[in-house]
Each structure stands twice: as structure tokens, then as C-alpha cells.
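Review form for a predicted model. The reviewer records the input and the model, then writes brief findings.
Reviewer: anonymous (R2)
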Amino acid sequence: MGEARATGALGFDLAAIALGELDARFSFASRSFDSAAGAFLIRSLGGEVTDLAGRPWTLNSRVLIAARSRLLREELIEILQPISRILPQY
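Model under review:
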């Protein structure tokens, strides 16, 4: 992976993934109103949006992993799973 950055606006970042301007994004506390439209755009354009277990992201999911490719999403999950075990549950 290269550099990491996030704007602080999950919906904006998800739109950037759909447009090809950002490769991936994660959130440990996603809210459906911030994520639904972006998740739809990403999936419609061939990207991946899942939870930390790799299951499809739903409106009830707390963790969101979004990426332009399956390989990148899987790499991100591999990195984040150990970290998630030490974070407080929301």
C-alpha cells in the first residue's frame, strides 16, 4: 500500500473511491446515512464494500471496508483485524 489519507467525511471518501480518486477507506463506526449512497456507487462500479469479516456491508454494519478491488479490500482487512481487537466496541 502507498500513502493513506482520509478527508474526515466518509461519504465524500466513498464517492472518491467510486470515481477512482481514492483506492480504499475504512471506518470502525460507520453510519448508514454516511455510507449508503457511497457503498451503492462503489458496488455499481465494480468495487467492494464489506464489514471486517468480509461479509457484504449492510445498513446495520458498524465497520465498513471499501476498496476499488477485492485484493486491496482483503489486504486492508488483514491489516485491520488485529487492530480492531484492541479498540473499544461502539
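Findings: The chain has one domain: 10-84.
Further findings: The first helix runs from residue 10 to 19.
Recommendation: see findings above.
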